[in-house]
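Quick start: read one record
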Amino acid sequence: MDLDAYILIGGRSSRLGVDKAFVKIEGETLAARSAQTIETALSPNRINYVARDENQFTTDLLFALGHSVISDLKPGFGAWSGIETALTSAKSKWIFILACDLPFVSVELLQLLPGFGNGETDAVVPRQPDGRPQPLCAFYRTKPALALVKTIFAGQNSLPPVNAIYESLKTRIVEPYEYGELHDAEKLFLNINTENDLAAALA
């Protein structure tokens, strides 16, 4: 698969109190854990981290990440900023986007998801066990997704929910029963937003 991968590390982590990218689970930072999972599963052409801005991390921390770091082109729009930056930067036909605060996304899941697309699919998005699609662990065909995002940004002071990106593309939603036999399928999309979330993940 002709693919570039992007890991979103720009969230303000206001509820957690520290940058999520460097929170550790099982001795590994969330950022490094995401990169290792992607590299093992997908062997993409490139892996880039997408940060909030150039000043989010010190030089030492940036070096420790081990992959190139790019900054939001339009800061202040949350996940939309990261998605737009990733699509604009991409040199491949497809991109994969992963939020770093989904630490239990597995190699097996990432190897499974692309198989649900076909020649007409513009996005492959898994649905979480709680019923919500997860657009920040998803594959997007670069050209149509970028065109859509530019349209969404044009003349907007506020943006719709990020789900709008897949709702307006030819999207294959992958249902929980379609990945339910994977190991620990029920916790694949456990999200680290608060100290309680982190405690549950560490447990």
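Residues 30-42 form the longest helix (13 residues).
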